Amino acid sequence: MKKKAALMMAAMMAAASLAGCGGGSAETNQTEAKTEAKADESAPAKADAAAGGDTMTVAWWGNQIRNERTQAALDKYSELNPGVTFDGQFSEWNDYWNKLATAAAGHSLPDVIQMDYSYIDQYAKNNLLVDLTPYVEDGTLNLDNCSEEIIKSGMVDGKLYGIPSGVNAPAMVYNKTITDQAGVEIKDNMTLDEFREVCKTIYEKTGCKTNVAYGVSQEIFSAFVRGVDSHILFDDGKLGVENAEELIPYFALYEDGVKEGWYIDPGVFAEITSGSVEQDPLVYGSSPETMSWCAFCWSNQYAAFTSAAPETMDLELSTWPSFDPKKSNFLKPAQFYSVTVDAKDPAAAVKVLDYLTNSMDANNILLGERGVPVSSKVAEELAPQLSENEQKIITFINEVITPNSSTINPPYPNGTSEVADLINQLEEKVCYGEMTAAEAAQELYTKGNEFMAAKKAN
């Protein structure tokens, strides 16, 4: 594999875009798969289309744009490979992981799944994913044009379990129509104090409120902790913070926001799906009371937000606020494509991964929705076709995040899904005034460490 950094891939794509055109958790509520299934690690023989004409099941989470593009790319594969058919299964984030855990328990996982960086370690160590290394070695899966460092992000204990779909970064999408109305300029790499002042001003001037990833907060919480002396939220068998006091500022955002009126009423989320782009208060709210001027997400979701937003709404990109933005910002593999141990024909499934990674037939349809394509060759060829909004993502990654970022945290260890659920529960209690920020921080510190230690002991 060529040793090119993720930045080089994105830079090449941006340069090609300029020449050709003239100018993206994980978040939360995951149920860990606990089934132990033994993966077949023997060197595979190359295979053609799915054996016996079996339908191959492919599952992913995402938004409507991703759903449509992914299904179209699979349909194109069927057209190019007669006899291969697909059962495409897509879900919202929370439902996806619950379904996957249920399928793992019944040894009925889809052939190909979309996997997240935060959970690839757990799924691999529970023997639910196929080691792709032999398929790279025998040429079934071509990674010649992929950054070696990015490919390494899909490895666990020296074995390759996931192929990154692209390069991604944390992003805050905001309603520039509202911020202009409030006379507020959103600068990149805001501190937490600056963000608070912006929230207050926007509320005072427009009545529009703020949502800080309510109900899907694991990643933003982790980024906040990174900004405190470069700590990590999840360590080996424990939380990576020194005391409960380090956790207070995060919960204080909710506590103070509700008391001062600028945080969105948590009751709004009872009627919508947390983590859904189409139902996010940024684009779904019908009045200032039910609207948020911003959404915490991933850079590759910008296109989905712009598609879901009303035509009168101007959306832009910025960074997540932090005590130290450079410590909090990072580049990450957008998602992974993985083959499960329940795949009927693993070699045929790997061919689909190769198609999604290297084929322009696929990527002319996918158009980088899952992040800057991991293949530098594909990124270069695709660039002239990208829309203005998609080009903004490349610029954001190259010019905003990359010069102001730190190394991504290791994949989350076992126990994180219980902690993520706890974060959401405590968040809700703080928003409803049932618990103070300090009390929530102490409970998270105490119970979070207990959850992590128990998982390590098991």
Helix percentage: 40-55%
**Mean pLDDT over all positions:** 86
Distance between the termini: 37 Å
Strand order of the largest sheet: 2-1-3-14-6
Strand content: 5-15%
Helical region count?
19
Report the strand count.
15
Would you identify the regions where 5 or more consecutive residues have pLDDT less than 50?
1-52
Please tell me how large the radius of gyration is: 22 Å
The computed structural class is: alpha+beta
Major β-sheet profile: 5 strands, mixed
Query: Which of globular, elongated, flat, extended, rod-shaped describes the shape?
Result: globular
Structural overview:
A hairpin with a 2-residue loop joins strand 4 (155-156) and strand 5 (159-160). The protein starts with 5 loop residues before the first helix and ends with a helix. The protein has helices spanning 6-21, 64-80, 93-105, 120-125, 133-137, 148-152, 176-181, 192-206, 218-226, 248-260, 281-284, 302-308, 325-328, 346-358, 360-366, 376-382, 388-401, 416-431, 437-457; strands spanning 55-61, 85-91, 112-115, 155-156, 159-160, 163-164, 166-168, 170-175, 234-235, 238-239, 294-298, 315-318, 332-333, 336-339, 372-373. The model is unreliable at 1-52 (pLDDT under 50). 50% of the residues are buried. It is built from 19 helices and 15 strands. Helix content is 43%, strand content 12%.
Helix and strand layout, with pairings?
Elements: H1 6-21, E1 55-61, H2 64-80, E2 85-91, H3 93-105, E3 112-115, H4 120-125, H5 133-137, H6 148-152, E4 155-156, E5 159-160, E6 163-164, E7 166-168, E8 170-175, H7 176-181, H8 192-206, H9 218-226, E9 234-235, E10 238-239, H10 248-260, H11 281-284, E11 294-298, H12 302-308, E12 315-318, H13 325-328, E13 332-333, E14 336-339, H14 346-358, H15 360-366, E15 372-373, H16 376-382, H17 388-401, H18 416-431, H19 437-457
Parallel strand pairs: 1-2, 1-3
Antiparallel strand pairs: 3-14, 4-5, 6-14, 7-13, 7-15, 8-11, 8-12, 9-10
Helix pairs in contact: 1-16, 1-17, 2-15, 10-18, 10-19, 14-15, 18-19
